[in-house]
């Protein structure tokens, strides 16, 4: 039956088109890169270091979601499953095996990628909104399993006392921990960037726009999507593992559907299909939540929900997307005038 | 800078001020029974403390910081750290939800700041997760089970059917209840763990099963809390179990739960309370003041927050410094009688704060004469019996 | 019609909820010929295409490609065995440029598409070939235009370019000239005449003059069954074909 | 009956129609020929009120309808046969036919439709997008006839049809014309066009390049074919 | 035996809520291609509204059963006009996101006004008894829910599948522009349909009020199970959604009754079934082939 799903019967043209791969001129890209790196290096001096650590972890998470949403056209509403599974695995490995934290995080991320395999295998059979619902449902299942498997996960008490072991170095201070994980996060972001701008990434965009056509060209669409899903799961896992070590603790919340939803907000706010927008979105949302919880404002959902509604209604390109769009428009206008 | 607290120089008080941090749920399931009104209660304590000690007070500058942990342990973790690092908090108060409570205990230990837990029930806080800076102030699963289990077995019926939410709290409660019931000469004829969280909100299969057990239970003991408790009670009434001779005992119930279910739905139900606002004159007077401040009657958590803040300030006063180790030394073993703590003692062995507890029964609707006055106290359980003996798991 | 058929079907059948669209069709396509499928609307031509290319699994029967059983293989596998197709209803990547379409097609057989750790710049190696193909179908000056902005006829041409990029052994074209202006039709016919060397072409076409100019063999389908098969002139004159399909008065068209 | 004045249309910044003016008298069949991308479909969509970026006036029976929403134009008697055939996936063939309200004095009853298109009758309970390309084309034509539209806007109704059916469509259009229906026909197939139409407009690069009588087209067929193929 | 029947009955009652919610979801999806994440929030508003009406205006259950769906339906229509509508031309994912945001907002609005404590709501006295079925007796209120839901589902199915209204609405949502060109005022239809779907959620909420805890989060986790239900049934299929709703209710009730030692089973059974369905029939048990999304 699967193949019948994509019989090329009368197919309405895709109605919106999430953005295509953006290209900025070279010097702009280098300048942005330099600014980005500078900000990353400075961050824990300007922000509470624990918040800065959170931002890094969430940036990876958001980018992993955007890899699917923006570049494969698959909106995963269940990415907490990978973020959270890796958090638990990382925690368990760190506690029981006493490995240095990067090794534990790697183990967690690999575990997340492994989990992404069966879930992805089932989920990529559907597209669009169905995909969102299916991933959401599977993530909820993972949540329940973690909840019931108390002997391992400590249930709702959470996994306490995850060590920050790193060859005896003292990383208890979040300030130093931030710099310890920064290279790992940058590596993860670099990987995402490379994937998007690889031949593989091009195929993904093709699949996003017309899967039936891609199949007729000889591309095994399901396998490509699945690969993208697993890669994305790995990156989400990387973030989740660092998050666990960062908090020295894992709770069921890392698997809850609101976590998945938050990841999507972050991406949408930053700009779907912009990759770096996710990083920006992560910084904003994490910072905002930190501020809100001290502000005495009780209805946090009102704010996050409001952001969602506003972005979707007025600001669909997201922050990065809007800036890139304006920049491109101006460049085009200048070209018109001079040409 | 690389974080870490700034030292306040030669003063006995860091920064020459005392900051109390109320970290609790201000938007979720526990926000009404504690929440922002606990901040009010702590402010009342500060005012009373100043009124009492006047210029002798350690410092004029006593403030309250607060944050919403949304019942999420990771949020609780970062908020607790931020409170200490950025807001200069000297003592953290409240912290409902066991997972968050345990997490904050870690923070307290690491940062060497005092922590009075009020909102959480887990006995781990005075068991394997106890530490030098953590005090468990108001209640715990043992207190709840012991009071209700023992007295209800003696006074209502010997055969029990226990329904518990299948997670640490529920399992803990089930074990404690079973122990208390058996010790009081009763027996548990059936018990079931219901899924947690129970998305469908349906308990009918358990409720249908209860009257068919052999021997037939006289008491249905439900360990569900919050919304799940509400579901159980609604459906208990729907299936008319009381008419079928099965009474109801509740493991953990707050006055706010009775308010939302209405006394009519719960008439005759027994449970253990840590404090009741209309118990005596002293409580009543404070409750009136509290109502003026907040517009509502206090729960035991509000009173406990008040009391904990007060005891902390007294201890700082007595020690003459806010140095955590000195304050802990001051508190350990102290015997107290105040608004909340009756025959209270701050146990040095495990930092359990013991005090009298109360077996309460929901009045029939007809006997409810004023809003929020929903229960009568059947029995006062003396402090010595109300809590467990120090656990060997706890090494401070 | 020498040698073993490159593509053959035996008893090929496809049902849609009780409706039989293709009914025990036997078909042999000789290598390096142009084989036309004609027939009234709804005869099952496109469905037959979908079966031959794996887009639909057959309800019964067997398909062989150069002697190898390919029944039930998914479309991407069939494609990689050297069967390319165009779609009757245009099917492109709306936001990709024309050249990118062709590059994507050229890359398909190389396995380059799996390299997620390499730079997309690797794809530049296909640029020259892509431009060549675009020029062949008359799209040279539209290489950058996104597919969604192309007029219908241009889209059809792009379809053809993509199919050619796969350098297939067997090329299946579903109404390649439908919606084209006359000159484009001529160009397309010439193009097919050029690319057929060394290839096998199977095409569905209603334009009988195109069929006449290109086809070596014509199979007429009706109601899912093969009605007549043979050389163009013979089929044209067949009484059954005239009543079922051509109509008595059909003139030069 | 239909008068178009200075109609211009854009896709974003690209102008596709440039000040097109044309007229179709009641009872006439008029074709619009032009090479791919000339803007023929865009013209029909603009008349139907479906093209957002347009300027100019459209008069039906002397009444300016250029401000009416599409559904009011349909009610005024316009019937559109879209170039993509416009079959509904969620409706059966019969439902596709009975969906539009009747808008003219002479709507075809369902029986008559099925008599004229037995192929549709055979597939009457299938989802319309499951039909073959040609069957969908028949459905689209049958639908406007059933509406009883007075002015048909047909966008390449013979595309993808078998020769036999092309003849049938020709017969249908002539038949419709006999009943007083007016037709504006977009066609690539000159041969077919001359068989049914009275007059022709040649659209090139968004402008009306020429207007011709039928006889003129016949005599100039070769030249025109070449022109169209430029 | 009577125990089994009782549990079966309970499963159907639990399933009735899934069915009603899935039905509303399917109606909205079928017509607007919008997956309404906020459906659970509207269910909550239905229950909460009933409580507020009773507590603050003394409006009884029966009146609430009419007023709340109407009021929420109206709210839904306003919402459709004001926001959902703007996104119709875009990828349906945007509406999914929008309604997700809406869910957070609605929940928090109720929370900040009424708190998270559950609010009281009693069974209407007319229905507070039990019905004797010979082998067992059963709360009258549950019998009522079951009968009412089944009737409603049949009625909706009939209207959409068999009447002209249903046909027009299906056409209008599939290809709005084309449908307009056929003389149908599409705008006139979409809004009421959305309102109707929301009204169904509100109705389910009112029905739940006497049985379940009424609080701002009551629909939050439920909606995810309902999503799984519609994936199982086939989102486009009205019949499928309803059937899957009752089916999952039954399976859950049996699981709870006979596998009570394995709480994980009853919690995850719906997701396991969903996985199996995806393997075996990706379009859902009763779903048509996926409209290319
Ligand atoms: N959605 C669109 N966006 C941008 N440009 C478009 C769009 N649709 C059509 N065009 C452009 O508008 C012009 C006219 O298109 P139109 O479809 O009206 O041509 P046509 O004469 O009907 O051609 P054909 O014979 O191929 O159907 C073409 O150049 C086409 O590229
Ligand atoms: N997915 C499907 N489900 C149901 N019926 C289908 C499906 N695809 C095709 N059909 C039916 O099968 C028959 C053959 O269709 P097909 O598209 O193969 O015809 P065709 O010969 O290509 O016609 P045309 O020349 O008009 O394109 C038609 O009657 C059509 O309605
Ligand atoms: Mg065809
Ligand atoms: Mg056209």
TrEMBL record, chain A:
The UniProt keyword set, sorted, is: Cell membrane, Membrane, Transmembrane, Transmembrane helix
Recorded superkingdom: Bacteria
Q: Where in the cell is it found?
A: Cell membrane
CDD domains from the xrefs? TM_PBP1_LivM_like (cd06581)
Q: Where are the transmembrane segments?
A: 27-43, 55-82, 88-117, 176-196, 226-245, 265-285, 297-315
The annotated topology with respect to the bilayer is: Multi-pass membrane protein
**PANTHER family this protein is in?**
ABC TRANSPORTER ATP-BINDING PROTEIN, HIGH-AFFINITY BRANCHED-CHAIN AMINO ACID TRANSPORT SYSTEM PERMEASE
> What is this protein called in UniProt?
Branched-chain amino acid ABC transporter permease
Question: Which source organism?
Answer: Micromonospora maritima
Q: What is the lineage of its organism?
A: Bacteria, Bacillati, Actinomycetota, Actinomycetes, Micromonosporales
TrEMBL record, chain C:
Record-linked InterPro entries: AAA+_ATPase (IPR003593), ABC_AA/LPS_Transport (IPR051120), ABC_transporter-like_ATP-bd (IPR003439), BCA_ABC_TP_C (IPR032823), P-loop_NTPase (IPR027417)
Q: Which UniProt keywords are listed?
A: ATP-binding, Nucleotide-binding, Transport
Per UniProt, residues of the ABC transporter domain are 7-248
User: Is this entry keyworded Cell wall biogenesis/degradation?
Assistant: no
Q: A single Gene Ontology molecular function, please?
A: ATP binding
Presence of the UniProt keyword Nucleotide-binding in the record: yes
Ranges in coiled-coil conformation: none
**Which SMART domains does UniProt cross-reference here?**
AAA (SM00382)
Do you know which PANTHER family this protein is assigned to?
ABC TRANSPORTER ATP-BINDING PROTEIN, CONSERVED COMPONENT OF ABC TRANSPORTER FOR NATURAL AMINO ACIDS-RELATED
Task: State what protein this is by name.
Answer: ABC transporter ATP-binding protein
Q: Identify the species of origin.
A: Micromonospora maritima
Supply the source organism's classification: Bacteria, Bacillati, Actinomycetota, Actinomycetes, Micromonosporales
TrEMBL record, chain D:
Report which superkingdom the organism of origin falls in.
Bacteria
Which range is the signal sequence, renumbered to this chain?
A: none
Q: Which InterPro entries match?
A: AAA+_ATPase (IPR003593), ABC_transporter-like_ATP-bd (IPR003439), ABC_transporter-like_CS (IPR017871), BCAA_Transport_ATP-bd_LivF (IPR052156), P-loop_NTPase (IPR027417)
- What are the entry keywords? Amino-acid transport, ATP-binding, Nucleotide-binding, Transport
Q: Which PROSITE patterns match?
A: ABC_TRANSPORTER_1, ABC_TRANSPORTER_2
User: Do you know which Gene3D superfamilies this protein is assigned to?
Assistant: P-loop containing nucleotide triphosphate hydrolases
**What would you give as a GO molecular function for this chain, any one?**
ATP binding
Every copy of the ABC transporter domain together lies at 2-230
Which PANTHER family does the record match to this protein?
A: HIGH-AFFINITY BRANCHED-CHAIN AMINO ACID TRANSPORT ATP-BINDING PROTEIN LIVF (PTHR43820:SF4)
Q: Which family does it belong to?
A: Belongs to the ABC transporter superfamily.
Name the chain's protein: ABC transporter ATP-binding protein
From TrEMBL, chain E:
Sorted keywords for this record are: Amino-acid transport, Cell membrane, Membrane, Transmembrane, Transmembrane helix, Transport
Q: Which InterPro entries match?
A: ABC_transp_permease, BCAA_transport_permease
Instruction: Classify the source by domain of life.
Output: Bacteria
Which Pfam families does the entry mention? BPD_transp_2 (PF02653)
Q: Where in the cell is it found?
A: Cell membrane
Asked if Isomerase is a keyword of the record, the answer is: no
Q: Does the keyword Protein biosynthesis apply?
A: no
Q: What is its membrane topology?
A: Multi-pass membrane protein
Tell me, in one coarse class, where this protein mainly resides. membrane
Q: Where are the transmembrane segments?
A: 12-30, 37-55, 61-80, 92-110, 141-160, 189-210, 222-250, 262-280
User: Which family does the similarity line name?
Assistant: Belongs to the binding-protein-dependent transport system permease family. LivHM subfamily.
What name does the UniProt record give this protein? Branched-chain amino acid ABC transporter permease
The scientific name of the source species is Micromonospora maritima
């Amino acid at each position: 039956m699967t193949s019948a799903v994509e019989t090329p019967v009368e197919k309405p043209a895709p109605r919106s088109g999430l953005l295509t791969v953006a290209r900025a001129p070279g010097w702009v890209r280098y300048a942005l890169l330099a600014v980005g790196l500078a900000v990353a290096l400075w961050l824990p001096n300007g922000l509470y270091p624990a918040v800065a650590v959170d931002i890094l972890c969430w940036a990876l998470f958001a980018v992993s979601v955007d890899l699917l949403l923006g570049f494969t056209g698959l909106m995963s509403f269940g990415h907490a499953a990978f973020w959270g599974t890796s958090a638990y695995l990382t925690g368990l490995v760190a506690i029981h095996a006493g490995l240095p934290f990067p090794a534990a995080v790697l183990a967690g991320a690999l575990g997340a990628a492994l989990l992404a395999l069966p879930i992805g295998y089932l989920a990529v059979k559907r597209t669009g909104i169905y995909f969102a619902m299916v991933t959401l449902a599977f993530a909820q299942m993972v949540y329940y399993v973690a909840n019931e498997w108390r002997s391992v996960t400590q249930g709702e008490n959470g996994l306490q006392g995850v060590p920050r072991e790193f060859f005896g170095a003292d990383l208890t201070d979040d300030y130093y921990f931030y710099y310890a994980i920064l290279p790992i996060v940058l590596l993860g972001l670099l990987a995402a960037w490379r994937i998007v701008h690889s031949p593989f990434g091009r195929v993904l965009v093709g699949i996003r726009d017309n899967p039936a056509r891609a199949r007729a060209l000889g591309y095994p669409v399901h396998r490509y999507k699945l690969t993208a899903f697993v890669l994305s799961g790995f990156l989400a896992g990387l973030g989740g593992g660092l998050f666990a070590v960062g908090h020295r603790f894992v709770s069921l919340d890392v698997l809850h559907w609101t976590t998945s939803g938050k990841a999507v907000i972050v991406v949408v706010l930053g700009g779907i299909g912009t990759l770096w927008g996710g990083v920006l979105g992560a910084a904003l949302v994490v910072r905002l939540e930190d501020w809100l919880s001290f502000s005495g404002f009780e209805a946090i959902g009102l704010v996050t929900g409001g952001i969602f509604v506003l972005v979707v209604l007025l600001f669909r390109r997201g922050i990065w997307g809007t800036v890139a769009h304006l920049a491109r428009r101006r460049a085009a206008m200048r070209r018109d005038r001079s040409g | 800078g690389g974080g870490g607290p700034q030292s306040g120089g030669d003063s006995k008080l860091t920064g020459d001020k005392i900051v109390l941090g109320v970290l609790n749920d201000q938007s979720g399931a526990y926000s009404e029974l504690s929440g922002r009104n606990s901040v009010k209660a702590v402010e009342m304590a500060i005012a009373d403390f100043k009124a009492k000690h006047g210029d002798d007070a350690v410092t004029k500058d006593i403030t309250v910081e607060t944050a919403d942990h949304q019942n999420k342990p990771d949020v609780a973790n970062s908020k607790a750290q931020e409170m200490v690092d950025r807001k200069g908090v000297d003592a953290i108060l409240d912290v409902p939800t066991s997972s968050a409570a345990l997490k904050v205990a870690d923070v307290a230990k690491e940062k060497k700041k005092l922590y009075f837990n009020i909102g959480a029930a887990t006995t781990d806080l005075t068991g394997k997760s106890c530490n030098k800076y953590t005090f468990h102030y108001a209640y715990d699963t043992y207190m709840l089970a012991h009071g209700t289990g023992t007295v209800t077995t003696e006074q209502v019926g010997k055969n029990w059917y226990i329904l518990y939410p299948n997670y640490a709290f529920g399992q803990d409660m089930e074990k404690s209840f079973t122990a208390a019931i058996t010790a009081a000469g009763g027996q548990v004829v059936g018990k079931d763990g219901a899924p947690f969280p129970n998305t469908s909100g349906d308990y009918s299969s358990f409720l249908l099963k209860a009257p068919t057990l052999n021997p037939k239970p006289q008491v249905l003991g439900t360990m569900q809390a919050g919304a799940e408790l509400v579901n159980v009670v609604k459906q208990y009434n729907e299936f008319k179990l009381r008419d079928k001779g099965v009474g109801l005992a509740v493991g953990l119930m707050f006055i706010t739960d009775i308010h939302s279910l209405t006394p009519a739905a719960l008439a005759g139900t027994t449970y253990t309370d840590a404090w009741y606002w209309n118990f005596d004159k002293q409580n009543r007077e404070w409750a009136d003041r509290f109502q003026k401040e907040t517009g509502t009657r206090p729960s035991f958590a509000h009173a406990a927050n008040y009391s904990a803040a007060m005891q902390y300030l007294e201890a700082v006063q007595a020690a003459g410094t806010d140095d955590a180790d000195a304050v802990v030394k001051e508190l350990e073993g102290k015997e107290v009688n105040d608004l909340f703590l009756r025959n209270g003692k701050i146990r040095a062995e495990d930092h359990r704060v013991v005090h009298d507890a109360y077996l309460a029964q929901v009045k029939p609707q007809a006997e409810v004469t004023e809003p929020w006055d929903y229960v009568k106290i059947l029995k006062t359980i003396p402090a010595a019996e109300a809590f467990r003996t120090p656990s060997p798991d706890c090494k401070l | 019609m020498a040698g073993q058929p490159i593509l053959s079907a035996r008893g090929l059948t496809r049902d849609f909820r009780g409706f039989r669209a293709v009914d025990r069709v036997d078909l042999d396509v000789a290598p390096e010929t142009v084989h036309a499928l004609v027939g009234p609307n709804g005869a099952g031509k496109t469905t037959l295409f979908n079966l031959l290319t794996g887009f639909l699994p057959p309800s019964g029967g067997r398909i062989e490609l150069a002697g190898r059983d390919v029944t039930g293989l998914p479309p991407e596998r069939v494609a990689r065995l050297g069967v390319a197709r165009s779609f009757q209803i245009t099917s492109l990547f709306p936001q990709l440029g024309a050249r990118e379409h062709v590059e994507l097609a050229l890359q398909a057989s190389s396995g380059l598409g799996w390299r997620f750790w390499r730079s997309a710049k690797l794809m530049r190696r296909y640029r020259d070939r892509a431009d060549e193909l675009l020029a062949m179908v008359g799209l040279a000056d539209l290489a950058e235009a996104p597919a969604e902005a192309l007029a219908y006829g241009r889209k059809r041409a792009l379809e053809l370019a993509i199919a050619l990029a796969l350098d297939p052994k067997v090329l299946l074209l579903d109404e390649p000239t439908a919606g084209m202006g006359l000159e484009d039709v001529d160009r397309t016919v010439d193009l097919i005449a050029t690319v057929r060397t060394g290839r096998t072409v199977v095409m569905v076409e209603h334009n009988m003059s195109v069929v006449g100019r290109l086809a070596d063999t014509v199979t007429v389908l009706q109601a899912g069954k093969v009605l007549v098969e043979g050389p163009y002139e013979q089929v044209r004159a067949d009484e059954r074909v005239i009543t079922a399909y051509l109509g008595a008065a059909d003139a030069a068209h | 009956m239909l008068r178009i004045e200075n109609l211009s249309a854009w896709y974003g910044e690209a102008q596709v129609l440039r000040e097109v003016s044309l007229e179709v008298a009641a009872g006439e069949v008029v074709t619009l020929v032009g090479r791919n991308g000339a803007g023929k479909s865009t013209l029909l969509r603009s008349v139907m009120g479906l093209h957002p970026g347009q300027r100019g006036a459209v008069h039906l029976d002397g009444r300016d309808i250029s401000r009416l929403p599409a559904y009011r134009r349909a009610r005024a008697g316009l019937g559109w046969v879209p170039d993509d055939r416009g079959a509904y996936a969620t409706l059966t063939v019969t439902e596709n036919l009975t969906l539009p309200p009747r808008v003219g004095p002479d709507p075809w009853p369902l029986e008559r439709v099925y008599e004229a298109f037995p192929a549709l009758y055979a597939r009457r309970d299938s989802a319309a997008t499951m039909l073959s390309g040609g069957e969908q084309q028949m459905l689209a034509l049958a639908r406007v006839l059933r509406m009883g539209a007075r002015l048909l806007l047909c966008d390449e109704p013979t595309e993808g049809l078998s020769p036999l059916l092309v003849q049938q469509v020709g017969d249908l259009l002539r038949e419709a014309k006999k009943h007083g229906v007016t037709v504006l026909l977009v066609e690539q197939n000159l041969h077919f066009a001359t068989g049914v139409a009275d007059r022709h407009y040649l659209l090139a690069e968004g402008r009306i390049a020429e207007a011709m009588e039928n006889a003129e087209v016949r005599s100039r067929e070769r030249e025109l074919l070449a022109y169209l193929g430029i | 035996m009577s125990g089994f029947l009782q549990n079966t009955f309970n499963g159907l009652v639990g399933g009735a809520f899934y069915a009603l919610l899935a039905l509303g979801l399917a109606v909205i999806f079928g017509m607007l291609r919008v997956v309404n994440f906020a459906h659970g929030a509207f269910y909550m508003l239905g229950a909460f509204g009933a409580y507020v009406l009773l507590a603050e205006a003394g409006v009884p259950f029966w009146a609430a059963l009419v007023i709340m769906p109407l009021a929420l339906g109206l709210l839904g229509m306003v919402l459709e006009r004001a926001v959902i509508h703007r996104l119709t031309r875009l990828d349906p994912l945007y509406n999914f996101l929008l309604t997700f945001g809406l869910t957070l907002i609605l929940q928090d609005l109720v929370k900040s006004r009424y708190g998270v404590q559950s609010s009281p709501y009693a069974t209407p006295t007319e229905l507070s008894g039990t019905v004797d079925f010979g082998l067992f007796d059963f709360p009258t209120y549950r019998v009522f829910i079951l009968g009412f839901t089944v009737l409603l589902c049949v009625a909706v199915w009939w209207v959409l599948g068999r009447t002209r209204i249903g046909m027009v609405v299906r056409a209008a949502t599939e290809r709005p522009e084309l449908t307009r060109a056929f003389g149908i005022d599409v705008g006139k239809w979409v809004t009421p349909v959305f309102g109707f779907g929301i009204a169904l959620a509100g109705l389910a909420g009112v029905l739940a009020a006497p049985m379940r805890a009424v609080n701002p989060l009551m629909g939050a986790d439920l909606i995810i199970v309902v999503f799984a239900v519609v994936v199982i049934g086939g989102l486009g299929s009205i019949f499928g959604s309803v059937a899957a709703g009752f089916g999952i209710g039954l399976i859950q009730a049996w699981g709870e009754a006979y596998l009570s030692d394995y709480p994980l089973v009853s919690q995850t059974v719906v997701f396991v079934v969903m996985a199996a369905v995806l393997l075996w029939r990706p379009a859902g048990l009763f779903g048509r082939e996926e409209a290319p999304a």
